[in-house]
Structures are given as C-alpha cells and as structure tokens.
C-alpha cells in the first residue's frame, strides 16, 4: 500500500471516530510512541513518515476535489507555481468544515479546532505537524506570504458554529460569511500578491454573499438535522417558527418570503462587489471568478 493511501485511510478513520474511539486511538499512540499525553498535540502524529510535499499535495487535491468541487475547478485559473498553495488553503477549509459532521460530540469538535489553532501557530514557526494539509501549508509559506490572522478567523468561526448558535439577525449571517468565505478570498489575494483596497472590498462582499448562499443551498439538509440558520429577526418578521419548519418543511406559510429576503441580501452583496471590479487589476480575477457559481443560485 502506498504512503498516500495509508495516510488517507488513517486520516479518514480518525475524522470519523466517536469520542470513545478517539480517546482509545490516542491512548494507543501514547503507549506505542511515547507521545505527550496531550491528545490535541497527539493529533499531529498520525503518520510520522509523511514528509514528501507531493504526497501532501495529492491528499489535498483529492480532498478539495471530493468535498469542494467548484473551487477545485477554479484551481486551473491560478499560475502553476501557486496551485499547491491554493490547494493548501482550500483543503484547510474543507478539513475544518468536516469537523462539524465527523465529531461525535462538542468536546471532540472543540479539541480538533484547538489542534488546528496550535497547528497554525506551529506552521508559521516552521514546525508543522505531520498532517498533509499542515505540511502543504508550510510548503506554501516558503513561496508566498500569507497572514495567520485569516486562518485563525476561519478556525474561530467554525469553532463558534459547532454547537449551532442561532443567528439573531442578517448581520450575524453576514459575519459568518466574512469570517470564513471572505477570509479565504483574502488569503487567495495574498497568494497572488494582490494588495488593493478595492479588491479587499470586493472579496468582503463576495464572501458575505457566499456565506448566505451556502446556508440557503444547504437549507433542506440543515432542516433535516434540526438545525436552523435563518436569522431569527427574519423569521419573526414573517411569523415563522423553527418548530413549524421542522414539522412541515417547505410548505410553511411565509418561508418562501423569508428565504427570498435573505437571498436578496446576498444578491445585493454581489452587485456591490461587481461595482469594484473596474478598479481591480486583471491578475486578481482568478479569485473573483469563483463567484460565478453564486450567480446561478439566483
């Protein structure tokens, strides 16, 4: 079995473990390898021999292709010498997004988020854990300048959403988009060496639109899991309750109007982002062409 296949299988297995299996796994690691008794640090030692950048790159490409296909297609828009860094950024987001569904309970999810906080600190110190996404991010930093702040904002937002906090207003939903999707775009602008305030403004608005559209596209699935991400003030405006949506589904009176109002906010962000495009250099277009998928949502 190849090293890449071995690592992929182990990574998937760890990601899908229950809390009991998770604890047993790390106890075994401690006994075999005399690893620190801190399970968060132990997460970084799945396969110590994975050192080759090409192995980490293949893992990240496969991860993005499987779980973020739209942005996988966008990779072709980036210069060849920067595509590995692009995959590292997108794979980082996929890894974090998968924690919500794979963690058996809130504590395990929090531990995995903390692992990534520590990993980002170590990556920026030049000492990445033996995890393919972390290794590829470390390699990316050797070729381009990226800000740790944006990675940490993504982690913090993903962490905050582990226990399904309600969005009280559309502003909360916009913050979700800003702290995840916009930060990913900021990193991609940095990747291309783009320093342009207009580009930053466009990325902010596109990210907010992306966050809103992501929630709306996933709405049927989220409802099936008894998770409600429509803003509370919008639901109150149209006299909709969570219980009614969970019970009756899309036939609830007023739901169409509520969804339309939220979608309109996303559309407005896209229009605003478009107004900045004439003042943004051509080299930044790979970052913004990914928003084409949002247009199809309306």
From TrEMBL:
Q: Which SUPFAM superfamilies match?
A: Terpenoid synthases
Q: Does the keyword Ribosomal protein apply?
A: no
Q: Which UniProt keywords apply?
A: Carotenoid biosynthesis
InterPro entries tied to this protein: Isoprenoid_synthase_dom_sf (IPR008949), Squ/phyt_synthse (IPR002060)
What superkingdom heads the lineage?
Eukaryota
Q: Which GO terms describe its biological process?
A: carotenoid biosynthetic process
Enzyme Commission number(s): 2.5.1.32
Q: Can you state which reaction this protein catalyses?
A: 2 (2E,6E,10E)-geranylgeranyl diphosphate = 15-cis-phytoene + 2 diphosphate
Q: Cross-referenced Gene3D superfamilies, in alphabetical order?
A: Farnesyl Diphosphate Synthase
PANTHER family attached here? BIFUNCTIONAL LYCOPENE CYCLASE/PHYTOENE SYNTHASE (PTHR31480)
Protein's name in the database? 15-cis-phytoene synthase
């Amino acid at each position: 079995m190849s090293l890449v296949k071995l690592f992929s299988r182990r990574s998937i297995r760890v990601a899908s473990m229950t809390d009991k299996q998770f604890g047993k796994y790390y106890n075994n690691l401690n006994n075999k390898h005399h690893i620190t008794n801190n399970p968060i640090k132990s997460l970084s030692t799945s396969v110590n021999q994975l050192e080759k950048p090409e192995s980490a790159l293949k893992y990240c490409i496969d991860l993005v292709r499987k779980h973020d296909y739209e942005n996988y297609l966008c990779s072709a828009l980036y210069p060849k010498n920067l595509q590995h860094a692009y995959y590292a950024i997108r794979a980082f987001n996929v890894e974090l997004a998968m924690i919500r569904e794979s963690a058996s309970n809130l504590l395990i999810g929090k531990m995995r988020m903390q692992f990534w906080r520590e990993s980002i600190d170590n990556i920026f110190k030049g000492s990445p854990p033996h995890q393919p996404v972390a290794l590829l991010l470390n390699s990316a930093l050797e070729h381009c300048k990226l800000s740790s702040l944006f990675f940490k904002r993504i982690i913090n937002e993903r962490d905050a959403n582990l226990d399904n906090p309600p969005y009280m207003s559309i502003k909360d939903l916009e913050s979700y988009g800003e702290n995840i999707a916009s930060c990913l775009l900021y990193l991609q602008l940095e990747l291309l060496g783009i320093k342009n305030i207009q580009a930053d403004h466009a990325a902010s608005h596109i990210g907010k639109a992306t966050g809103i559209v992501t929630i709306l596209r996933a709405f049927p699935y989220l409802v099936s899991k008894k998770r409600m991400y429509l803003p509370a003030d919008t639901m109150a405006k149209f006299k909709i309750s969570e219980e009614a949506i969970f019970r009756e589904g899309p036939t609830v009176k007023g739901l169409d109007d509520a969804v339309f109002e939220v979608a309109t906010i996303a559309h407005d962000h896209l229009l605003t982002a478009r107004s900045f495009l004439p003042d943004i250099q051509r080299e930044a277009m790979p970052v913004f062409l990914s928003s084409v998928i949002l247009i199809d949502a309306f």
